[in-house]
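To: structure desk
From: M.T.
Subject: fold request, one chain
Message: Could you run this one when you get a chance? Sequence is below, nothing fancy, just the single chain.
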Amino acid sequence: MTSSENPNLALSLSQTFVASIAQVESAVVAVKAGRRGSASGVHWRSGIIVTTEHSLKSEDEITLVLPNSSTSIATVIGRDPGTDLAVLRLQSDVSLSVPPLAKEPLQVGHLVLAVGRSMDTGVTASLGIISSLGGSWRTWQGGQIDQLIRPNLMLYPGGSGSALINPQGHVLGINTAAPRSSILTIPATTIDRVVNQLLQQGRILRGYLGVGMQPVQLPERLLQAFSLTGQGGVLIVSVEAGSPADQAGILIGDVVVALGGRRITEIADVQQMLDPEQIGQPLAVHLIRGGQRVDLTITIAERPGRAD
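Reply: Done. Structure tokens follow.
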């Protein structure tokens, strides 16, 4: 490639990014909830805005700054801390575009852009690549995320809830801050599922045991005595009064090694048993108490209040 071709290539790439941002920025709003700070939000469906749940400091009055710089009021349909998603409804008859969703599978190294909106400066954008991908995973609050998407880019102030898009201007998901100043993207399939549940039910159904847990290693003699595969179990460190675990007779200090016929070695193994279809279902619990095996039955309840 000659030196004269390089500027043309850079200009072509730049124009591609400008066009992709223009395609989605008319669907991106700024969200102000509370006295301090703001976030971005995406007009996901007609009259429906999706943003990050942790950014909503108040539900009393949520102000949106629209692409034309006018403001509108939104109300909260529902929020799910488990997936860090909140769904808002526009109160006024506002015409916003709905961005197209990406259909092509992501690969590590793909170019992506974060498109947000600031209360002060308007549309913001940053460029990066997909640095890592993984399968479905659960947050520490039990939310099911369909794919691990970690982009390597920068979020400007108010960038939580911004759209992650490909160079074609198609939305891959929305961005949220993760521990150690990293960024994660909540994929579009997860957003669709949460939006559907919140629109239909106003809340996210999630199973509930009422225990505090931590993983623990088991001595070899116990593993052999009870014919257990794997090295660990889950230690019960707290039991809420009146909870399903309390009613089942689970005690602080018990080590759960199986639930519903599945071997339990990590907290994530327990969380996988708390999907909505398990609510109301009795499950066999096998645990070790004082060096002895104890078998109980626990009935999964719906998590009370907000799903947090």
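Reply (cont.): Residues 5-25 form the longest helix (21 residues). Let me know if you need anything else for the meeting.
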